[in-house]
Structure formats: C-alpha cells, structure tokens
Amino acid sequence: MSTMAPNxxxxxxxxxxxxxxxxxxxxxxxxxxxxxxxxxxxxxxQELSSHLDLISSYPERDYHTLRRAIGEYVGANPEHILVxxxxxxxxxxxxxxxxxxxxxxxxxxxxxxxxxxxLCGGVVRYCPYQEPDWQVDVxxxxxxxxxxxxxxxxxxxxxxxSNALDRNTLEQIIAGCKKRNIIVMVxxxxxxxxxxxxxxxxxxxTSRYNNLAVIRGVSKFYAAPGLRLGYAVIxxxxxxxxxxVSKNPWSINSLASKAAEIMFSDKNYQNExxxxxxxxxxxxxxxxxxxxxxxxxxSESNFxxxxxxxxxxxxxxxxxxxxKQGFLIRDCSSFPxxxxxxxxxxxxxxREDNERLTNSLLSYLLQ
Length: 367
Hints:
Helices cover 37% and strands 17% of the residues. The protein is of the alpha/beta class. Helix 7 (167-178) links the parallel strand 5 and strand 6 (183-187). The radius of gyration is 21 Å and the shape is globular. The two termini are 16 Å apart.
C-alpha cells in the first residue's frame, strides 16, 4: 500500500485521485461528493434556456422575487431571508459579523466552519456527538459553553455522520443559548434528502428565536454546485443587516436566481430524488450489515457513515483499494472526535453503480 494520506482528497478531487492511482477518470465513479445522482432536474434543463436574455440585465438588487420564492419553498418570511454566493459566503458572513472568540462545534463535522472561525481570530472547541446514534446531551452541550462563547454550530443532518437532531432537541439548545446571548447557526445543506425533514428542520423556529441562523443551498440536493446559490433564514434584524452589508452587491447572477425559482417548484424531481436515495440506502445498508464487519450510523441524508470493525481493515486502505477499482469514497480520518482510520463515508448513486461499489466493498470486507 502507498504512504499517501487519502483523507486529504476532497470529494471533488476525482482528477487528483485518478491521476495518483493511474485510473481513467472518465470511468471513475464519485461516491464522495454527496451530490444528487440524478443531476439537475429536467424541468430546469428544459426551462432555463428560455431565460437566457436575463444575462443582459442586472439581477434585482434586493432579490425580492428570489427571496419570495425561497420563502414559499421553506415556509419563511421573505424579509428574514438572505441570499448569497453559495452557502459558504453566508457561513463566512455570519461568522465574521458575530466575530466570536469562542465557538462550540458539534463534532465531527464540516471543516469550513473551523476555517472561517480561525480567519476571524476565534477558537473552535469540539463537543462530540455520542456514539452509536450520534446524538448529543443538551445539558452537556450547554455546560460546554462558557462566558466567551458567541456561537454554537450544528450541521443537521450532519456531515460526515449523516445523523440528525430532532426539532425538540434543537429548540432546547437554541433556548438555552438564548439565555446566554449565544447565536446558534444550523447548517441544513442536506435536509431535503431526509424523509423526516419536517421533524428535524430548524426554519420553523426562526419565527420565535432571534439567536438562530439557518443555512441552506442548492449544491447537493439540486446537483447545482456551479450555480453558487445559498440562502439563510435569520429573524434578527441587526445580524441580518450586518451580514447583508458585508456581502458584495449582485453576488448571485440572474440565471442562478431564475434557476432557483424553477428548481424549487419541481415536485417530481424532489420526490424522485427521495425515492431513489432511500431505496438505495436501504439495499446497501442491508447488504453491508449482513457481513458483520461494519456499523452504520442512522442516516438522514444521502450518504452512509460506516465504521470498519475489523482492526486489520483501515479506512485509508479501503479508500485505496476502492480507488484502484474506480470508486472514489471518503476516508474520514481527517475529521476530529472519531477513532482514526476506522470510518468511511459513501453517498448514494444510481442502482447499477451502487451495486458495483457494494460488491467491491463486500469482497474487501470478507477477504
């Protein structure tokens, strides 16, 4: 085996992985990017071309039409909605506006939060999820906060574990933080993949709590990372205005704005995605668990978080074996608060590709 660090590869690094392992990148299947395998919706593909003339005009400066469409889609007041050049711009803007000295992050989780906090001179402390269900004790989390804590960050459903906190748990956290003047940022990038989204979404809580910011985007569920469109729901006028002022004007182009309106109205695409992802997760989970060689965390997104139980099988080795067979998976060793070299993450693709990967994993696990 090589001495490389496979966890250094991002889910979009298929070119680098293919080159490193001398695999044809055109035949490599990316199970690490967590993007909807259906690609963009057919409705978007068919309708967006008829709006190309929008390129000749500036977008609405306040994005009123787009914010109204988002409000209808998520059930929120359009006045509480901010839009940005991907969810990353909004995550950055919120953190910069708060400029917290101390941030508590439920972990393991997405690394971008810590990077942005560091750029603002703050420090992140990890409050670990509790295995095997990857939940959190609310009292423990609140006691983890101190007088310097200005922000608590929750990815829900979480990346990489795929677990989710229910709304009651979220509300207890938000209410406890409100008493201590702590902002809670909930990243719901993967929530549309959950069949229980109505039970775990935090957006309904924004009408009652002004210490809550909820982030979403279109990169994963709508398979549109190139559009760079994200949005936030914030019922805190001061925070919302500070974030908005810090953004560049017209950060979302006219076509991206129109594309969002089209995508959010495509119920057929939304239902087809849910049916595909959850039927495929069920099949793959059943086959992998039958080996007795893995544990799989409860999944509320489009990916599985898998623990390798055999001490002779490592996540880095599994990554390399799969890569050489044309499958890019995620070695999760770079995430904090988990046992090193034990976890991999795999997103759902279409049936034939999922079967091929599962067969390769079964062969690896049972050899």
